[in-house]
Amino acid sequence: MIVNVDSTCCKGCNICVSVCPKQVFALSQRRNSYGTTMPEAVKQKECIGCKICEKLCPDAAINVEE
Question: What is the mean predicted confidence (pLDDT) over 42-55?
C-alpha cells in the first residue's frame, strides 16, 4: 500500500495516528502551511488497506492506494 498525506490539506489533527490499527503513522518534524506538525506514514509496508485513516480524515488529506 502507498499512503499519502497531502500537506496542503492536512491541519495536523492526528486522528490518523490514533485510529490506525497498524500504527502506520507517526508525528514528523515537517510542518504544514498551518504551522503544525504533520503525521507521516513511516510504516507503509505495515498498512493493511483498511482506509480508516482516509475515511476519518476531516480534511480529506489522506489517500491510500494499492
Answer: 96
Domains of the chain: 2-65 (3.30.70.20)
C-alpha atoms less than 13 angstroms from C-alpha of 21 in its C-beta half-sphere? 6
Residue 27: strand, helix, or coil: strand
Cβ distance 40 to 9 under 8 Å?
Answer: no
Dump pLDDT digits (tens) for 17-39.
Answer: 999 999 999 998 888 878 889 99
Name the residue among 26, 31, 29 with its Cα closest to residue 11: 31
